[in-house]
Specification:
Chain A is mainly α. The first copy, chain A, is built from 18 helices and two strands. Chains A and B meet through α3, α5, α7, α8 and α9 of A and α3, α5, α7, α8 and α9 of B.
Chain lengths: 326, 326
């Protein structure tokens, strides 16, 4: 996928290139809050703040995982799961596991040797609060915990456990998140094209967001072993929302303030980071985000009828990701 | 398990408390070199140094994983696998995965915010060679890769993949390696008893060594779902060699030189670290190491006859771990 391919998509209606407003939808709003609360409950269950043996480590892990956030990845797991009538117990564990990997990546990204950030979700970052060594170890332990959550004695069929571990590992390692983060660090300061950014972000943030969708689909029995229409549609959807998420992040870094974002605004420019805004300009970046949203939703239109009917939450999440204000 | 329990074991013959010499055994020597070479081949296969997309990250991962070491954890996987007639393909992947987790833990332990070490296996540590950010990311990616190696499309039955992921995750997270490392960091500088050290090291190094034995056993179909005589014996063996390994590490830090060790000798005392030698004295630490070796080998004597006959490599590895000189 290249920037120009997305911008030239015939499916992009002219109106959609303007900044939009998230449509009011009480049913979605209810679903959203219900599932964000469910994410929090799962975090509290699997990452309790108190533990008799190594209390400091558990406190740091809980701090990193429980301090909030939009829970976009768990929401994608659940929405994809609804689309394919997946089992709730497996979905809950998959949703929690991707959020744990996301949380560990934030802790490590914020460390002084990486982005050196002191503010996250309006709170001191984990290393500011607990010291660098504990933050490093808490991140490491959160990554291991994700695989522990995916491999319970009961609750999930063993073959599905293996499939979920495979999807998560591939999305978060050298070919996914860690590889993208490396490209990001190496690119800081140099001029980068929009296509290079897509290449980098499809790994750095896109891979885990896409994996969230695919893990939800896997919980309903859809995976590469069944390369059906459903799988392909959800994969295309996952690719597009994964990229859209980062484009909007870059836009908000320029247009929103630190209070609304809960993290330091304007930091990309300050650090001379290449972003979609610096590479394409603000208008084209907005156009790209809307184009990706439309691409995601067009993919859902190709689902077989029963799943298309059950894809409403995925459709609404694509709106949320592109039209959010923080 | 406490220090005094081990030292009072009736099974400890009087002669075994003296420093020993590894008995010459050409068959074991051949097996050892053959399997160390196999570990290296697997590392080269799963962590190739060259990769077109993010070359720097892959180079750092390869450097960290391939630079040598005794490969004790893979050797334990294979030896336990021989004991239960396990499948070779599963064993190879399990052996590689534990070594990748071990390699990632060394990279992170050596970082300036942790042990701040510049020399490992006679070479500059990963962060000295590649910078802190890349070392951090290489460690993170190696951890993810371990789960990728355990969850191939073919080669291992899905239920076994899930079981191996479960064992590895529990051994390396907050209740295992990362928790033990936290206790170690928090304890530096304070007086610690021998029993506290056992408690800490049973997690820091013991958990992954024990998991290596259990993963080998799992490849032959033995796990907690079949809590048979075989499983219990191998678990006791794993606990004992896991602890013995660290006791001997502490002894060698005092008695060997940096050249032989391939890392900075005398560093524990320099950093005011609590070790078995500082807590118990050199003689009692040696006695403890030998007691643990005897305990490990006594556990193998309780195996059912066909497995007892096939446990020779495990027996010899216990000797190797206690009688090694680096």
């Amino acid at each position: 996928m290249t920037v120009s391919e997305v911008l030239q998509l015939e499916s992009v209606p002219p109106g959609s290139t303007q900044p939009g407003v998230l449509p009011l939808n009480h049913s979605f709003d209810h679903w959203l809050h219900q599932h964000q609360a469910r994410a929090q409950q799962l975090i509290e269950r699997f990452v309790p703040p108190e533990h008799p043996l190594v209390p400091q480590l558990h406190e740091a892990m809980h701090y990193a995982a429980a301090m909030g956030g939009k829970r976009v990845r768990p929401l994608l797991v659940w929405a994809a799961g609804e689309c394919v009538q997946a089992d709730d117990q497996a979905l809950d564990r998959a949703a929690c596991a991707v959020e744990l990997v996301h949380a560990y990546s934030l802790v490590h990204d914020d460390l002084p040797c990486m982005d050196d950030d002191v503010l996250r979700r309006g709170q001191p970052t984990t290393h500011v609060r607990f010291g660098e060594a504990l933050a490093l170890l808490a991140g490491d332990a959160l990554q291991a915990l994700a695989y522990e959550v995916l491999t319970p004695e009961a609750d999930i069929a063993p073959a599905l456990q293996a499939r979920l571990c495979a999807l998560l590992a591939r999305a978060s390692g050298a070919d996914g998140m860690a590889g993208g983060q490396t490209l990001d660090i190496l690119a800081t300061g140099g001029a980068v094209s929009g296509d290079d950014l897509m290449h980098m972000h499809s790994r750095k943030t896109g891979a885990l967001l896409k994996a969230s969708v695919l893990m939800g689909a896997a919980c309903g029995g859809f995976d590469t072993a069944h390369p059906a229409q459903t799988y392909t549609a959800l994969e295309t959807y996952g690719d597009a929302v994964g990229l859209a998420f980062q484009v909007v992040d870059d836009i908000l870094d320029v247009t929103a303030d630190s209070h609304t974002l809960g993290k330091t605004a304007g930091k990309d420019a300050q650090q001379n980071k290449s972003t979609y805004v610096s590479a394409l300009g603000l208008d084209a970046a907005r156009k790209l985000a809307h184009g990706l949203r439309d691409k995601a939703q067009a993919a859902l239109d190709t689902l077989p009828p029963p799943q298309r009917a059950a894809s409403q939450r995925l459709r609404e999440l694509a709106d949320l990701i592109v039209l959010r204000e923080h």
